[in-house]
Amino acid sequence: MTTKTGVADAGNLIITGVVLMLLGDLLFALNDAMGKWLVASFAVGQVLVIRSVGAFIVLGPMILRQGPMALFRVEQKGLQFIRVFMATVDVALFYAAVAYLPLADVMTFYMAGPIYIAALSHLFLGEKIGWRRWLAVLIGFAGVVIALRPSTAMLSLPSLFGLAGSLAFALSLVMSRYLRSTSDTTLVTWQTVAALITGIVLSIGHWQPGTIVDWSGMLLLGIVATCAHLLITRSLKLAPASLLAPLQYTLLLWAIILGYLLFNDVPDTQIIVGAAIIVVAGLFIFHRKNLKETVPAEAVPPDGH
After folding, report:
1. pLDDT at 2
2. Quick check: 224 and 27 in contact, CB under 8 A?
3. Looking at residue 300, what is its pLDDT?
4. What's the 3-state SS for the chain?
5. Angle of helix 2-39 relative to helix 44-66, nearest 10 degrees?
6. For the packed helices 2-39 and 250-263, what is the interaxial angle rounded to 10 degrees?
7. pLDDT tens digit sequence for 114-147
């Protein structure tokens, strides 16, 4: 009976992790669309500054609940710094890319993220990946290539921003998984502080006045992004990164939908075909993952977030 209960608890944890990842991805898609709208009129640094202020509207009560000093009692400070650095690079490069490219185009670059995550999780987290899932990962990458419409345009500076940002994003997620004993509040707070500092530096000489709608949009951007980070950070503590990675493909679908509704960007046939291949490959990876390879309930920190 105890064994069956343990298996059921593990199954509940992994299902919860999947749901949280899907919700986090939806919020990230909304965040991305809002960010594209804002960086069309404001410098990336300015958006990062106000976005970070908005983030602390959510983080403030959580920091008080946890205790401010807990932010400084973290494990493996070197890895914590690497994670914060990668998360900051991801955000800055994404906004730099989306300022010049359609939302769906930038997200196709980010669809390589799950491929990086699967490989890195296999190498550094000990999460075993079978040959069938490796094959599905390669097929998914082929879908990315189709969606990207291979050409010299892929080597443009905004495209390189997108590629580098996707790698930084994948590394930050793997680090979040590795540092799962650190509270969600601490993880997200430090990456928000880093984004704030980076934004201040980048906004020097580029600050522009805005309307109440503009400032409210930037603050809301921070609130939405923080909620997305918290959901995804928590999901990575409940389920293996290699299982959750394919769910990132839903970002491409949301990008296509929001890009059309908000910016009148109509995806061409190659984008649709590539997206379909990516989703099918991702679903296959999800299906092949053994649900018993998960984090035991007692390993999840009871920080209440």
Report:
1. 55
2. yes
3. 39
4. CHHHHHHHHHHHHHHHHHHHHHHHHHHHHHHHHHHHHHHCCCCHHHHHHHHHHHHHHHHHHHHHHHCHHHHHCCCCHHHHHHHHHHHHHHHHHHHHHHCCCCHHHHHHHHCCHHHHHHHHHHHHCCCCCCHHHHHHHHHHHHHHHHHHCCCHHHHCHHHHHHHHHHHHHHHHHHHHHHCCCCCHHHHHHHHHHHHHHHHHHHHCCCCCCCCHHHHHHHHHHHHHHHHHHHHHHHHHHHCCHHHHHHHHHHHHHHHHHHHHHHHCCCCCHHHHHHHHHHHHHHHHHHHHCCCCCCCCHHHCCCCCC
5. 150
6. 30
7. 667 766 666 666 667 777 777 877 887 788 778 7
The residue type found at 291 is L
- How confident is the model over 89-103, as a mean pLDDT? 88
What's the pLDDT score for residue 304? 31
User: CA angle, corner 220, sides to 208 and 195, nearest 5?
Assistant: 65
